[in-house]
Amino acid sequence: MLKNFLTVGSWTMISRILGLIRDQLLAAFLGASPLQDAYQVAFRLPNMFRRLFGEGAFNAAFVPLFTSTLTKQNKKEAQRFANESFSVLVTILLFLTILGEIFMPEIVRVIAPGFTYDAHRFQEAVILSRITFPYMVLICAAALVAGVLNSLHRFGIAAAAYVSFNIVGIAALLWLTPLMPNAAWAAATGVTLSGVIQLGILWIAAWKAGLKITPQIPKLTKDIRQLFKKMAPGIVGSGITQINLTIDTIIATLLPAGSVSVMYFADRINQLPLGVLGAAAGTTLLPILTKEISKGNKNGAYDVQNKAIDYSLLLTIPAAFGLFTLSIPIISTLFGHGAFTVNNVYASAQSLQTYAIGLPAFVLIKVLSPGFFARGDTSTPVKIGMVTIALNLILNLILMKPLEHMGPPLASSLAAIANVGFLSFILWKRDALYLPMALMKRIGGMVFSAVIMSVVITLLMVFLFHHIPENTILYRLFAVTSLTCIGALTYGIMLHSLKIINLQQTFTKLKQKLTKK
């Protein structure tokens, strides 16, 4: 499992790094402007559907069923089920896309009510949303094919395909911007083009793996009805984080212009560890956990779940402390240039700090949800989801005025923490989650080590950033990189001293893997 975790995590990390480059271009070209706000809303819409239908509820229901069919029956039956699922999914999404294109002005009024007070920003949001909306069909279809590959334990190619999203996005901003009315149009076009490329890469990989995913006339077969039955409630349950973030965006459109943008750039930094660790844990855990449960191996299921929690928190906890401590230097270094002003930097850094508070909870949702999905239960997460969505909305309404751009991120973080509490308690009550004392002590040691790391970083940060010569980008990059490395080293030494990890063994294993590669 660790090998698969690292494989997916490595490819996701590459994608996130390229994503930062893409975001730097967006910040330089558009800043935290009304046009940037319009683009972010336009991208949020198909991205939300991708999380819900593609990587969320659909895959949560599809992967266990496909894996079970492949294990208990044969490859031919699994092929049939994949083709049926692909055809039905694409048909439904094409229908939704056509409706979306027609009624886009009404949709934008719902997801961005604050834009209605600015005719230009509203019109741009409608146009950009129409450009990006077809991405929903392409990426959801790609997610299904990726689910097939993950079930075959081909995690690498499925994770690698998503790198093309940012490569195409960077190319679009650099090459299409001169040919279009503005950079936002170029970025939106790049989103949809990337969907075509991602689907193509994954389809070819599945074909080479011996499973040719081919569209056919959609039919509501027994298997498809079972898929829908398991999928329907999970639309909210598995996509709860995205729904909460969408609520944040809706609230942000009612705040001063630029609030959507500063929150977006903060979320992008927060998504770096969240995407890498959360995606890696959730992607690799579901099929392996399903396999252990189908064999009736209760202790094996415990072990798999606990390893995922351990691996995730080992890196997520220091990431949360590090982002909170280094928020201003990070945002300033990455985005503080071009049209992105000093005020934008401080506002985005404050949003990042409030997102970082909930980072471990965001990742644990990805780790705990498969505990329900692998057991065929998609209804319980939806009940928990409804409660946390309501909580997030209430907190947003309470915090939006006094905290402005910090209100929605803090509301999401608190709702995520509550979500983890509910998921953990119910799994424990069902005897589906057992956290041994050894694991609890390890987690406590991780938190203590991260606190010491933050103290060291803070002391060094005062010295380094007090002596910045003319506040140059190169010096800031050097300072942030140095602080990050020193922080990581401090954290590692603390873990070693507390016997949570053995640095010598860790370096030896990494050396062996690198030598082998």
TrEMBL record:
Organism from which the protein derives: Commensalibacter oyaizuii
Top-level lineage group: Bacteria
Membrane topology annotation: Multi-pass membrane protein
Family under the similarity heading: Belongs to the MurJ/MviN family.
Membrane-crossing segments per the record: 88-112, 132-152, 159-177, 183-206, 245-266, 272-290, 311-335, 355-374, 381-400, 406-427, 447-468, 474-495
InterPro entries: Lipid_II_flippase_MurJ/MviN, MurJ
Keywords: Cell inner membrane, Cell membrane, Cell shape, Cell wall biogenesis/degradation, Membrane, Peptidoglycan synthesis, Transmembrane, Transmembrane helix, Transport
Compartments, record wording: Cell inner membrane; Cell membrane
Gene name, Swiss-Prot/TrEMBL: murJ
Name under which the protein is recorded: Probable lipid II flippase MurJ
Main location per the UniProt record: membrane
Functional description taken from the UniProt entry: Involved in peptidoglycan biosynthesis. Transports lipid-linked peptidoglycan precursors from the inner to the outer leaflet of the cytoplasmic membrane.
HAMAP family (UniProt xref): MurJ_MviN
Pathway(s) the chain acts in: Cell wall biogenesis; peptidoglycan biosynthesis
